[in-house]
Amino acid sequence: MVFYRIYGFRGSENLLQTDCETERLFLRLFQLADAKSVQELAGHEEVARTTLSIPHPYPDGAAEAWIERTRSATEIGTIYSFALVGKENNELIGCVSLRVSKTDNQAELAYWVGRPYWGLGFATEASKRIVVFGFEELGLNRIYAAAMTKNPASYKVMSKIGMKFKEILPKHILKSEVYEDLVLYEMANPNLLR
């Protein structure tokens, strides 16, 4: 249940592992072979509509470019994006990631799950695991997450994993030519509160 071979920002130690698992999921780095599934799942209109930055329609070639960018960012310790792969069928289900601010020793949690897998608890399961990774492996001080207020399923995940409501940010992002309100949740590293 530890990560390795990702270059952590604590120094040059190779203390992290790229793969881990939960009860129903394998979490691993994305591979170029995942690009078609990423485009299909993330690009679904309902998925794109509920996320902060996924476009619809999802352009050809964008998944490959995104995978390459996130793998490069993982190597320098600024983004850790993991594919959620079902143990039962070995199929891509979604993504969970931490976008790390080394300066502030904190990260933004983000996730998406393909439409066929909504309501099954995969986002909660993966997010719980990635929070442990962030606090225990990366030594982060704080993890926060944001969702559009029109996406209560997303901020229910935040609450279920122990995050606390912080604030609503009115008209904070422009999505599909509409300014959307965001809800912000956060949690501090319990190991650093002692």
UniProtKB/TrEMBL annotation:
Domain N-acetyltransferase residue range list: 25-185
Gene Ontology molecular functions: acyltransferase activity, transferring groups other than amino-acyl groups
Name recorded for this polypeptide: GNAT family N-acetyltransferase
Source species taxonomy: Bacteria, Bacillati, Bacillota, Bacilli, Bacillales
Annotated Pfam families: Acetyltransf_3
Highest taxon listed in the record's lineage: Bacteria
PANTHER family: GNAT FAMILY, PUTATIVE (AFU_ORTHOLOGUE AFUA_3G00765)-RELATED-RELATED (PTHR43792)
Coiled-coil positions: none
InterPro entries membership: Acyl_CoA_acyltransferase, GNAT_dom, N-acetyltransferase
PROSITE patterns the UniProt entry points to: GNAT
